[in-house]
Each structure stands twice: as C-alpha cells, then as structure tokens.
Amino acid sequence: MADGSLTAKRQEIALLRRLEERILWLASWTIHNANHLRESRDGLKVGGHQASCASMTTLMTALYMKALRPQDRVAVKPHASPVFHAIQHLFGRQSLDKLKAFRALGGAQSYPSRTKDVDDVDFSTGSVGLGVAVTAFASLAQDYLAARGSVKPESMGRMISLLGDAELDEGNIYEALIEACKHDLRNTWWIVDYNRQSLDATTKDRMFTRYGEIFEAAGWTVETLKWSKRQREAFERPGGAALKAWIETAPNDLYSALTYQGGAAWRERLATDLAEDPDALALIGAYKDVDLGELMTELGGHCLETILEAFERASRDDAPRFFIAYTVKGLRLPFQGHKDNHAGLMNPTQIAELRERLGVVEGEEWDALSGLSSAERTALKGLVARAPFAVAKDRNYTAATVATPTPDELLSAVAAKGEGSGEQSTQAAFGKVMFDIAARKDEFAGRVVTTSPDVTVSTNLGGFVNRRGVFHRRAHEDVFKRRRIPSAQVWSMGETGQHVELGIAENNLFIALAALGLTAPLFGERLFPIGTLYDPFIARGLDALNYACYQDARFLLVATPSGLTLAPEGGAHQSIGSPLIGMSQPGLDAYEPAFADETAVLMAHAFERIQAADGCSTYLRLSTRSIAQPERGDAAWKQGVVEGAYWLKPPAPDARLAIVYSGALAPEALEAHAALLEDEPGAGLLAVTSADVLHRDWTAAGRSRWTLGEKQVSTVERLLADLPREAGLVTLVDGAPATLSWLGSVHGHRLRALGLETFGQSGDLPDLYSKYRLDAEAVLDACADLLA
C-alpha cells in the first residue's frame, strides 16, 4: 500500500512537471507573439517579462493545480501575468484570442485586472506592493463577515499574494504588516519569488534572514524553501556539506553570473574554490556540465515536491504564512540569471530552441499540449480537471440589493430647529447623519462599516462608534467605562463592532477600503464602507486610492477638514490640490458641499452609487467651518446637488456677472453677491457641489456630438445658458483655482478664478481669507476687473 501510494505520488509529480513546462511554454509564447509576430503599427516594444514568468511558473503550477481551493483568493505578481493567463486558459477561463491579443486592445492585460480581464482575477495588481497588502485586508474583511455569519467556517478562504522579492522594498507592505498584527490576522499566505534580482540589478545579500525575522516578530510562520529535493539528496553525499556551504555564502551577483554562464562555468569556479576538498571535487565530477548546472540552479522554489510539502503543512492551520521561495530569474531560458534579464525577450532563434527542447510541434505553438502522446494529453487534462480550484466555474459573486436611506430620511438628521436657522459645518452634518444611521435597526445600518487612520473622533465618526462599537476578533472592554472615568468616547471592542480602527497610515486606509469595497464580488455580501481622513493627507495614500478605484471597489470617502479654512493648523494641514485629485481620479465621484442639507443628500446618493451596476465610489470634501444654512423654497435644489451645480440665486436675462463658488467659501460668495446686487441687480450665484461630475458630464456631451452625431446638453451647459455670452464669471474655491477655471470654456464666458496657489499658514479666517484673496472683497475686485 505504501509503495503504491509512493508510486502514485511520483507519477503525479512527473505529470505536474510536464504540465509546468507547458505553462512556461504558453506564457513565453504569448509574450513572443506579442513582441515578434503580431503586427506592430507604432514600433513600440510590447514587453511581457519572460524572465519573471519563468521564476514563478513552478510556484503557480503547484498553487493552482494542487493547493488552491475555490474559496481562496490570489493577488498575482504583476510580472507573472502571462503565467496566470496561461493557467486560466488551461482551466477554460481564458480564450485563445485573448492570449493572442496579450497587451493589445481587448486582449489579456499586461497585469491582472478585475475589470479589464475576462478570466478569474481576484485582485488587480500592477503597482507593486499594493497587491500584497490588499490580501491582508481582504482577510480582515472575511473575518468581519464571518463574525456576522455571512461566511461559514467551511467557506473561509486563504488570501494569497504572489510577490517578487524586490516588492519587499515597498513600505506599504510593512504598514500593512503592522496593521495585520494588530488585528490578529489569519488565513493569509504571502509567497515570495526570491530570485534575488530587481529591475536594475541583483538584490542585497542575506536579506532573506532579515525578512524572516521581521515577519516572525509580527507573529507569522516563516517557511524558507531554499533547497530542492535533488539538492538535499546531493548534500547528503560525501562533499555535499562543502557544496551547500559554498552556495550559502556565495554573493548573489556571483551566483547569478554563474547561472547565466552555465555548467562549465560552475565547474570551473567550484573546482577552484573547493580545491582542498577531495570529496567535494568528486561530487562535482560525478555530474555532466548540464546536470551540474541544473543541480546548482534547481532551488526550492523550482521543486514541486518541496513546494507542495510546504503548502500542505501550511494548510493544517489558519496562521499567516510567509514563504521565502528561492528561485532563479529566467530559469530554463537563455538569459537565466543575467542581471539585465528583467525586460529581456527571447529572439526567434531562442524561442525555437525552447520549443524544440520542450517538444512542441512547430505550427502548433498555441496548443499547450502539442507534441504529447494521446495518453499524456489525457493524463494532463485529467490533472487539470481534478484540481480543487477547477470545481467552481464562476467565483465572481453578485450581492443582493439593499434598501438604502432616502435623501429625506437623512435630511431629518441634519434639520435645524426652525427652518433655515442655526449654523452647521458639513463635517458636523456628516457626524449627525452617521449617528442617525447608527440608531437605525434596518439591514442597511448593519452593513455599514467605518474605518479611519486614528482620526475617528476628529472626523466626527465618534458618535457612530459609540453606538456600534469597534470590530476585533478578540473582545476587549472599555476600561475607562468600567472604572467609571468620564469620557465622551465609549468604545467597546468585539466581533459585533462595525468600526475598524487603523493606525496613522493613510495607505492602509485606502487598501482597507479596497478590500471592504470588494466584499460583494469576493464573498457575495455587500458592505457599505465609509472611510474618513484629513483632506490634505489624501495625497499620502494616492497610489492606494487609485488602486482601489482601478478594481472598482465601492466605498464612501469622507475627507475633512479641508482647505485653507483649517486655519489655525497651518500650511502643513491645509489642502490645495485635492479637488483636482477628485476630478482626475476615475471610479470616484468627488463632491464639495457647502451646507448640511447638501451633505445629507450626497450621502444618500453615495450609498446608492455603491451598489448601482454603473456606480462607483464617492469622495466628500468637507469642512469644520460652521456657516448659516439657507432657507429652501422647494426641492428642486436636491437634483442639482447630485448633478453637480444649481443656481442658488438665478441670474436675470440681462445679467452681466455671476459668482460661482464651491464648498466652505459660500459665506464669502453670498456676501460678495449681496454687495454686487447694488450695482448689478441681475447677477447670479451658482453653487457648485461637484466640479468633477460637472466636468465629466460636459466632456461626455461633447464626445456624443463628435462621435455619435447626437446632440446632448450637459448640466453645466444648461445652467450657464441662462447667462448672456458677454457676461463674466468669477469662481471661488478653497483649493486650486483650476478646479473651476474651465467653466469659461463652456460658453465662452470671460472668467476670473480665485483659489489657492501657494501654501497656507496659521491664522484666523478673516486674516487668511484676506491674505490669500478668498474674501468677499477679492470677489468684488475680480468682478470689477471683468467689467472694466
């Protein structure tokens, strides 16, 4: 029985090796076709990273063909994209046409993309390091759902990242590692392709020990896959210990150089360095040059037995695992080990040599099983069909629609006593709405999850957290409450909590929002994530924000306080360019309301957008400045708020001027408008709640006329059509003046744009608004200049 099992295991390993060779071939051929065979109309190099693919093929074969289960999720190393697409093709989830169009319009993407690829991509990757961090927060999101019974114990998946060792230079990985430690991370595997090469050169020697120490200190189990079965057997022979010691101490650059030069170079160098050890010389002499080269380069990350044994050990518990898999970059390709091989491509002669070596028939290059016997083809197809991962045909779920609050329901939370009376800030209005949501008993409120990088209280989320608690898998009581110490914050911690408290790392905030915003397709359960931070610090996590939007994660981002209006804090905390970030970021609707009721309406709209088929995420730029609230005569303004603008004071037919404002500078705009009416009684006052939505609608209308021959009128065209063409516009925003300066192009109105173009400083509002020309006097000066 034991011998039979051993024989079956050996046969399976042999089949896996054969399959792994064909995956390497298909990935290499896909890249070759894109660069050498497909028509090039622009002369640009297409690329595709054949060397990076070769170093990952064994690991990915072992993972996808044996270890991976349908509920597991993977972030694939960006440069291993062709290997991923080749494996997906074997599973029947990627078409041949898409492979042939690799890196072309409509083809398989250069880096795995949730939204652009048709095959089974769990997490988009491309910006190195982010695909690593997202798996940690996806595990946290899974724990959050599991605590609510939405993910059953038997359905808990592993969140796996395949990464290159050069990615370990990315700081966001360690920010995520610290947060993972705080939240008692589990069910996470990070598998490092440790080929000791980066884009430019070989990496520093002996770093693997440091990486292991770092991850062990964070509570991870570290598995180092350094030696293959063949090497371990050789090390047991006389002279093997000396050979192992030589490899252990060899500098990375020397090892890489000898790997490139091949068996004869290995023999020459080893014979010199081990000349005083006759056993070692005899061991080396027992191998032919080609076999010696293979012995020295078949490291643990290229040994299926070693990898599968490690994966099997790791599957016995849910502890986070950090695998350091030693590999050779470009193994089995003509430029293996060369320090310049990162962007290297095989030429036609070299790809033909690889084809011949692997037994692929010329003319049948796209058939991954070409040249194999009927029995081999049948066996390999059976191996693929039996893979645990092959069971689920569709792993991209659709979550049920949840009834979200109506604008009127949220408006009731911010309504002041006596219509139009009182002063409020948009940040305070946000807090009131969140406090009201926390009191709700409906399904929507139970699916809201909030998160913030240590600014929960100062961004007005405290009331929500007091009512709903902090999420953690291990319960912890509020000691201040138990000891009866007065505190405005009563934060109970446990599995029922709905707030994820993060450390001061904005990058982690956006990666967490990415993971929480993908629970619907990943786990079939919709959450409504809300993240808060200070507006100026969006820039610190901008790469991660872009990453979240790129894969269509859905969330509400609330950035507050903002602008020069954060007066006493000084220039380091005052934001300038964030409105332009909101305008330029795809997958994100950016709004800057001025009033509490606008904030409530936009929050209701944001919740709708989170689960709409054509929806996206929303960014609210809020302020701590309390201002008088307007009296509303009707409900027409609500639609304008969502569409991006409305006339707070409509212009007369013969108006010569209109003031356009956005956000917290509404009082200055109102003051200037009131003064302007003495000389220009027909002047208008336009409230812009979203320069982003307005601008996108305007450009879309223009494209429709140019490309479809359809006459579409955008919101801003309709609104500004109320002004004569010879009228002027003065725009006012607490941010970059370019945010609204484009409005003059809509109908050709002359325009003066006021805003921030230099760093601010500490002060009170009257002084700062005057110094930076954001006050009513500056608006009137700009009006006078237009009329002069």
Automatic annotation (TrEMBL):
**Assigned EC number:** 1.2.4.1
GO molecular function annotation: metal ion binding; pyruvate dehydrogenase (acetyl-transferring) activity
Q: Which SUPFAM superfamilies match?
A: Thiamin diphosphate-binding fold (THDP-binding), TK C-terminal domain-like
Q: Where does Mg(2+) bind?
A: 165, 195, 197
Its cofactor is:
thiamine diphosphate; Mg(2+)
Gene3D superfamilies listed in its UniProt record: 3.40.50.920, 3.40.50.970
Which InterPro entries is this protein grouped with?
PDH/Transketolase (IPR051157), PDH_E1 (IPR004660), PDH_E1_M (IPR041621), THDP-binding (IPR029061), Transketo_C/PFOR_II (IPR009014), Transketolase-like_Pyr-bd (IPR005475), Transketolase_N (IPR005474)
The organism sits in which domain of life? Bacteria
A Pfam family that the UniProt record links to this protein? Transketolase_N
* Reaction(s) this enzyme catalyzes, per UniProt: N(6)-[(R)-lipoyl]-L-lysyl-[protein] + pyruvate + H(+) = N(6)-[(R)-S(8)-acetyldihydrolipoyl]-L-lysyl-[protein] + CO2
Give TM segment ranges: none
Alphabetized UniProt keyword annotations: Magnesium, Metal-binding, Oxidoreductase, Pyruvate, Thiamine pyrophosphate
What residues does the Transketolase-like pyrimidine-binding domain cover?
A: 424-629
**What is the purpose of this protein?**
Component of the pyruvate dehydrogenase (PDH) complex, that catalyzes the overall conversion of pyruvate to acetyl-CoA and CO(2).
Name the family the entry cites: Belongs to the transketolase family.
Name this protein carries in UniProt: Pyruvate dehydrogenase E1 component
